[in-house]
Amino acid sequence: MILFAVESSCDETSAAVVKAEDGRFTVLSNIISSQIAIHALYGGVVPEIASRAHCEAVTNVAREAVREAGIELSEIDAVAVTFAPGLIGSLLVGVSFAKSLAAVLNVPLVPVNHIEGHVAAAYIEHEALVPPYLALVVSGGHTSLYRVPDYTTFEEIGASRDDACGEAFDKVGRVMGLPYPGGAAMDKLAAEYFADNDPEKPVFVFPFPAVGDETFDFSFSGLKTAVINTIHNEKQKRKTDELPDEIRRAIAGCFTKTVCDGISKKLSAALRETGASTLVMAGGVAANSHLRRAVAETCRRRKTAFCVPSLPLCGDNAAMIAAAGYHLLRAGITADASLNAFASDEAAEDYIASLASCR
Ligand code: KG4
Ligand code: ZN
């Protein structure tokens, strides 16, 4: 079966053509047009600019995906699209495009939750991965733990009560003067710090982002504020706006270590409590080299199999939406021409539940 997928929930317009055979995926194309350069001028995503940029890019991105895949439009068996959660104007562009394409081709239209799409990215490269498993999603908008009993059920068992992990990376990066989004640059700075310093003897001690012992919840807002205050204090101490490189490295390193320790602690407890034998980590922050190592080590200690997508499949892309769409289609979950987009997870869940109850 050939799936065509569209992703436009935030600041990347993406279209992909993916071949699925018995749950095995071959990515024939996965085109991503990033708006980062546009939003970098503002230090963050500007929703209206994002919608307009998706509107300008979507047709060419889709054309390029079909061209690179070397298929005819008539070979497409289903169209999958991210319909929630995300920026509503951005989502609407992808949803409108996908609805039209599915209608013209007279093929099923599959509504995909962006977060579940991130998790499904793991199926593309890990052929042996099958539910049940535990999923950790770390992105710019989410930090959540899910029990995944089957391909289309996601039961949240923990989440950030405030900022998402990626948001904390980006805000700290911005105050340090790093290019937007700050995650990748922070990763590099932290690596430089770890190369010369013992991570167990931190130069700066920051608040732990894990909430209590009785939940699997996180909190990144206190950590983010403490790091930003430290940056301001270090600048004031030196009466300069330019921090020395070694201080920037130490802040990035100690912040990253605190994030990794907080996530590993909750993960370890969740693996113990659920007895899960497999963990999937997904989302943009899953590209962080230090977090990948820390989570791999946590899984090794708990004798848990660890599946994480390769770096190009961690960030937003349409191939992951195709993989999720395939499993939804197999479960009989398709939308009709009245499909809408939803900014929140809750509204998306209600919509999918209404589709499932109609089956
Ligand atoms: O999943 P994603 O592409 O978009 C959302 O669904 O939010 O995640 C984007 C987030 C941004 O916050 C970005 O800074 C972060 O992923 N990110 C990283 C790294 N690469 C991307 N954070 C830490 N280390 C990285 N290497
Ligand atoms: Zn994402």
Describe this structure in words.
With 359 residues, the chain is α/β, with parallel strands linked by helices. It has two domains: 2-127 and 313-357, Nucleotidyltransferase, domain 5 (2-Layer Sandwich); 133-311, 2-Layer Sandwich (Nucleotidyltransferase, domain 5). It has eleven helices and ten strands. It has helices at 36-40, 47-69, 88-105, 114-125, 165-175, 183-196, 221-238, 245-274, 289-301, 318-330, 345-358; strands at residues 2-7, 12-21, 24-34, 78-84, 109-113, 133-138, 143-150, 153-159, 278-282, 305-307. The chain has a five-stranded mixed sheet with strand order 3-2-1-4-5, with helices on both faces. Helix 6 packs across helix 8, helix 7 runs antiparallel to helix 8 and helix 8 (245-274) packs parallel to helix 9 (289-301). The two termini are 22 Å apart. The mean pLDDT is 96. Bound molecules: 5'-O-[(R)-(carboxyoxy)(hydroxy)phosphoryl]adenosine and zinc ion. Residues 114, 118, 139, 283-284, 316 line the site of zinc ion.
Short description:
The chain is an alpha/beta fold. Helix content is 48%, strand content 19%. The strands form two sheets. The chain has a five-stranded mixed beta sheet with strand order 3-2-1-4-5, sandwiched between helices.
Q: Would you spell out the secondary-structure blueprint of this structure?
A:
Elements: E1 2-7, E2 12-21, E3 24-34, H1 36-40, H2 47-69, E4 78-84, H3 88-105, E5 109-113, H4 114-125, E6 133-138, E7 143-150, E8 153-159, H5 165-175, H6 183-196, H7 221-238, H8 245-274, E9 278-282, H9 289-301, E10 305-307, H10 318-330, H11 345-358
Parallel strand pairs: 1-4, 4-5, 6-9, 9-10
Antiparallel strand pairs: 1-2, 2-3, 6-7, 7-8
Helix pairs in contact: 2-3, 4-10, 5-7, 6-8, 7-8, 8-9
The protein binds 5'-O-[(R)-(carboxyoxy)(hydroxy)phosphoryl]adenosine and zinc ion.
5'-O-[(R)-(carboxyoxy)(hydroxy)phosphoryl]adenosine (KG4) binds next to helix 5 and helix 6.
